[in-house]
Structure formats: C-alpha cells, structure tokens
Amino acid sequence: MQETTFGQLPAVSITAPDGAQATIALYGAHLVSWRTADGRERLFMSEASPRDGSAAIRGGVPVIFPQFSTRGPGQRHGIARLSHWRLGDHGNDATTAWAEFLLTQEDVPAELARGWPHAFALALRFTLRPDGLEMRFHVRNTGGEPFDFACALHTYYAVDAFTGTVLTGLPDTSPLNFGPPLDNVYPAPAGLTLQPGTGTVQLAQQGFTEFVVWNPGAEAAARLTDLRDDEWQRFVCIEPARVDQQPLAAGADWTGVHTITVAP
Ligand SMILES: O=P(O)(O)OC[C@H]1O[C@H](O)[C@H](O)[C@@H](O)[C@@H]1O
Question: What is annotated as the active site (predicted)?
C-alpha cells in the first residue's frame, strides 16, 4: 500500500504482484484508477472532475449510498461519495492485493448526516486479482431501529470506440449498442459481458438487484460542468445497484459484490 494523492485529495494505491494497480481516494472511497497488469487503464476519469472534495468525483467508481439518484427525499446519490472514509485492513499475498475503506455516521459531514440520521457502518474492500478486480460492499445497521437504504457501485468503464461498444446479458434485451443517450434500469442478472472496443470484460454481481446503464449523450453532457464536452464518448456506466430504498433491520448486514474479469 502506498499513500498518494488524487488532485488535492489523499489517496491510497495498491499494487498486485502481477503489476495491476488501483488508486482509491479516501473522499468517497472512490476508485479513481484501475490499471491491469498490461498497463491499460480500465476506468474513465473526467479531466474536468473536481479533485478537492468540494463536490463528487466524476468518473471511476462513485459509491452511491443510501439513496440512488433522486429516488427519495435525500441527497442525490447519497452521502457516501461526499464523505471522507478511513483506510482499514490492507495487504498483499502471493497473487492479490487489497485495501478496505470504512465509513460510519460519525465520519459524515454534519449537514449531510442530519439528512439521514441513522447509525451505520460501511466497508468497501477492493481486491486486485490476476484476472481482475473485486469490489465487496458491506452495509451494517449499527443502530436500534431499522433503516431503508439504496446503493450502487457506479462504475465508469473506459471505452475505446463508443459506438462499437456492446453489452450483452441483460434480461429480455438484445445486445445493447451504445449511441443514443441511455439511462435504463434492468433487473440484475448474475453476469454481463462488455466489449469496450478492445478485449472483453465480464461483469459479475452478487446481492444487487439491478444494473443501471447510463451515458448522458452529447446534449446532456454539455450541461455537466465536471465533464468536458467530448468526454461522453469515452465511457459507459454499468452500475450494479439496489435502486429502491429497502429496509435493513437493526443489527443486520447486507453485502453486494461486483467482480470485473478481463480477457485480452
Ligand atoms: O451526475 P450524477 O449525480 O453523478 O449522476 C449521474 C447519473 O447517475 C446514474 O447513472 C443515474 O441513473 C443517472 O440518472 C444520473 O444522471
């Protein structure tokens, strides 16, 4: 594990024995870069993204919790991506490297915590493996009352050729070709296949209930101040999610896992 920075934000880099590397900003426990052993960057990061903690980072993997988008009365996409997490367990073995990040109610800025006054503990563990990356997201209700939560790992995949990018495996949907703006919610199958131009990426999930597929297209992208006008063609978001807020009993746990496996 190496301490580093992402803009003005403290960050942590982990490197697997095969040379794969992941960099995570403590702000949001936000995965800002993932390079496979071949040196290839797999995630998109906006050149115009805030990198000072004044607003959410645009690109990588924002952690959405406890509300998805505007599906509720609270903060858009929740409070986790706007809070400074703590580094927990981290290490290496013969084939993998990992780092876990932790967030509780006490870590959340007061004005955001007021909007969602519940006792919780989040743990997000990134594991670099020889063939890919696992993200394991764990939610615990540490309070005495149930609370409702939604969540997502809002993954921005870098694509080489936007209109040549194909996503297969969505239920009742023909292979999805990217082109027009998209903001769709699908019931989550266990696995999807993404062809981002070069190579193939397998996306697997456990515990989530939906995949959200999003790309703003040119017009909406032009309205996003944290995205350069031409950058919308450089990514597709495929987000394992639990889009609706559902209850978690006092003392109970929930785990969602997203595993991304790459093939040449
Ligand atoms: O701009 P943000 O708050 O990061 O949201 C970016 C996007 O996230 C999700 O994919 C939603 O389904 C979209 O409706 C939203 O536009």
Answer: 154, 239
